[in-house]
Specification:
The complex is a heterodimer of chains A (about 300) and B (about 180).
Chain A (H helix, E strand, L loop, with lengths): L15 H14 L17 E6 L5 H12 L3 E6 L11 H9 L5 E6 L4 H8 L3 E7 L5 H15 L6 E5 L6 H12 L3 E5 L15 E3 L2 H5 L4 E4 L15 H8 L3 H4 L7 E3 L12 H4 L6 H19 L5
Parallel strand pairs in A: 1-2, 1-3, 3-4, 5-6, 5-8, 6-7, 8-9
Helix pairs in contact in A: 1-5, 1-11, 2-11, 5-6, 5-11
Chain B lengths: L5 E4 L1 H18 L6 E6 L2 H17 L5 E4 L30 E9 L3 H13 L4 E9 L11 E5 L6 E6 L1 H4 L3 E6 L4
Parallel strand pairs in B: 2-3, 2-4, 4-5, 5-6
Antiparallel strand pairs in B: 1-8, 7-8
Helix pairs in contact in B: 1-2
The chains are: A alpha/beta (about 300), B alpha/beta (about 180).
């Protein structure tokens, strides 16, 4: 099994075998980050550009560390400090970066499909680090890696995703991935946050948190995008928290060994109470640790001599 | 295509060689103080396991054993599109000031051992590194030699030397396989 593709644009395009290959490779990379010298020479002389048009702490840092631990040179460009503010189009930016001969371009953009457009225009490998409300493949991979590490499998696990499903690229990528791996997926949230026809993706839908997390193995809480509050998709944060905040009151409905996940950044007291975020069920920081390994795996699998 | 597979070492031969290597390791190092065995994935890991048991049977103590995957240190990785699968490295004991015995099944070009030594240095500064192999088939491309050898097996470059072990192949034997194209 090899990863015979130039780009990683979404989970939708990946086969189950490819996902397993990526997760297995990532499992082996975990150990490098625990060494005293956290570096292997594998990607010496390779260049990775992180091109971020949207704010990010975790994903950008994670890609940067992943590249550095493999000895690649990593360069970060954020839109706010680049020629983007002078009006350069994304394609012109990419063509200019291409002319400097990097090997991988990691891109985050608020427009769905931006990485796909770049991938068809430049010869470098493109990794989607989040495009609009479309996909966030590396997040789904690190989530699946975390679940698999804790539960030993993904097949037949009950996973519930809670929050603004309609605007969440994390939810979409995870639904694609978890379904391919044989998990049962349920989504929950206020009706305004559940896309129409979501059932066609093969998921169950609940409008009650209590119903949705009953006897589940994994609960994935999504970040409420407070910046979207003015769009009238939910009345108030307070009401949202009353109905959908994961807390001591409702967590006992899930299985005793439930995993609580969150892609970050968390709004404490809105979608998740602090005692749950920091409590024994939480694997939120394992997700971050595994994120570096997943991104190392992708950089390793995508780069190579094009002989 | 002619099938010219030739068994050059059977289960008893392998076992006797490993027993001798276990004694040689103890003799050369004057006991087992500070010794660490590091098996190179995958064949070397099983052989290192067996050496650990043999040394334990002689001295009554199980010396530390680590597992090393050298893939990320290989010098041909970026020349190929086919990325080899990465196995887990598991070295939990500190290597500083220890006597490390690297264990592999076949010593050929020496490039794997070069990669392994580079990897080991990232884990610490061993007092010395020695090399134990079941088969030395020659054709070195780097200035590397083994300290402990089960069998010297002069081979041609058109042959493939395959060490089969019960743990992974269900049987213990060393086979020379001819390349089919001739």
């Amino acid at each position: 099994m090899i990863l015979a593709r130039k780009d990683i644009l979404g989970i939708k395009e990946l086969s189950k075998d490819e996902i397993v290959l990526i997760l297995d490779t990532a499992d082996s990379f975990i150990e490098i980050s625990t060494r005293e010298i956290k570096k292997v020479p594998t990607l010496r002389g390779k260049t990775v550009i992180n091109l971020f048009y949207e704010a990010s702490t975790r994903t950008r840092t994670s890609f940067e560390i992943a590249g550095k631990r493999l000895s690649a040179d990593t360069i970060n460009i954020s839109a706010s400090t680049s020629s983007v503010v002078k009006g350069e189009t994304i394609l012109d930016t990419a063509r200019n970066l291409e002319a400097m001969n990097p090997d991988v371009i990691v891109i985050r953009h608020s427009a769905a499909g931006a990485p796909h457009m770049l991938a068809s225009m430049v010869k470098q490998s493109i990794i989607n680090a989040g495009d609009g409300a479309h996909e966030h493949p590396t997040q789904a991979l690190l989530d699946m890696m975390t679940i698999r590490a804790k539960k030993g499998r993904l097949e037949n696990l009950k996973v519930t995703i809670v929050g603004d499903i309609a605007h969440s690229r994390v939810a979409r990528s995870n639904i694609y991935g978890l379904k391919k791996m044989g998990a049962q997926v349920t989504v929950a949230g206020p009706a305004t946050m559940i896309p129409k026809d979501i059932e066609q993706m093969g998921v169950n839908v609940h409008s009650s948190l209590d119903e949705a997390i009953k006897e589940v193995d994994v609960i994935m809480m999504l970040r409420i995008q407070i910046e979207r509050q003015h769009q009238n998709i939910f009345p108030s944060l307070r009401e949202y928290a009353q109905r959908f905040c994961l807390s001591k009151k409702n967590i006992s409905l899930a299985k005793k060994d439930v995993l609580v996940m969150h892609p970050g950044p968390i709004n404490r007291g809105v979608e998740i109470s602090p005692d749950i975020a920091d409590g024994p069920y939480s694997v939120i920081l394992d997700q971050v640790t595994n994120g570096v390994a997943v991104r190392m795996a992708l950089l390793y699998l995508l780069t190579g001599g094009k002989a | 295509m002619k099938n010219k597979n030739r068994v050059v070492m059977d289960a008893e031969g392998i076992d006797r060689s490993l027993t001798r290597i276990a004694y040689e390791i103890l003799e050369k190092n004057k006991g087992l103080a500070d010794l660490v065995l590091i098996g190179i994935r995958t064949g070397g890991v099983y052989l290192a396991n067996r050496l650990q048991s043999k040394i334990a049977a002689i001295e009554g103590v199980a010396i530390p054993l680590g597992i090393l995957d050298v893939t990320l240190y290989r010098d041909d990785l970026l020349k190929t599109n086919k990325k080899p699968r990465i196995g887990k490295t598991d070295i939990t004991c500190p290597l500083d000031d220890r006597k490390v015995v690297l264990v592999d099944d076949v010593l050929f070009t020496g490039r794997t051992i070069r990669a392994a030594m580079d990897a080991l240095i990232d884990f610490g500064r061993p007092r010395l590194i020695q090399l134990a192999v079941l088969i030395d088939r020659g054709h070195r491309e780097l200035p590397i030699r083994a300290d402990f050898v089960g069998k010297n097996l002069p081979s041609s470059l058109w042959e493939d030397v395959s060490v089969k072990l019960t743990e992974k192949d269900g049987t213990d034997e060393v086979v020379i396989e001819m390349d089919s194209e001739e």
